[in-house]
Amino acid sequence: MSSQLEPDVAFGATREFGIAATVADDRPFLNEVLRKHHFAFEPRLNVYLLPPETTYDDAVKNMAAATREFQAAGLSVAADPRAVVPPGPAGPTHTPAHSEAAGPGPQEERREGHASRSRAALAASPQRPAPTPKPAPPSPRAATQPPTGNRRTR
Fold first, then answer.
1. Cβ pair 94, 50 in contact under 8 A
2. CB–CB of 105/38 below 8 Å?
3. What's the confidence (pLDDT) of residue 140?
4. Which residues neighbour 33 within 8 Å (Cβ) at sequence distance 6 or greater?
5. pLDDT class for 137, splitting at 50, 70, 90?
6. What are the boundaries of each domain within the chain?
7. What is the DSSP string of 8-49?
8. Which of 8, 45, 85, 142 is a plausible cystine mate for 75, CB 3.0–4.6 Å?
């Protein structure tokens, strides 16, 4: 892995296209690896995209396999962590729709567990400031009654 600031390959996610990849230059090896893992170059956007029918699980697997191959070749790879967030209202939407009438699909069943892991990861992230604890509001009783008991005054 080189110590350069710009990665050789970068992966990210968009709502419209799903997982996308971009390369730092036109080395044939970069193109070969991405094509091997089903990414196709979209010249209009200047990025590599997976076919629209690619499921979320397959998209993540293709990105991970390409990343491993690039890293094994000594190349630097950057990936936006949001690329592995399951699709939903706020995530990438590059998967076929699931019928609500059929009940929850495997992605919906996994989403709940993934969401709790995501919250834990974000809570510990050095990129996010720690939340400032807020004092608890006084109880209504404490606000209306004087303190009771044997309190000493000096």
1. yes
2. no
3. 57
4. 66, 69, 70, 73
5. low
6. 1-88
7. SEEEEEETTTEEEEEESS--HHHHHHHHHTT-EEETTTTEEE
8. 8
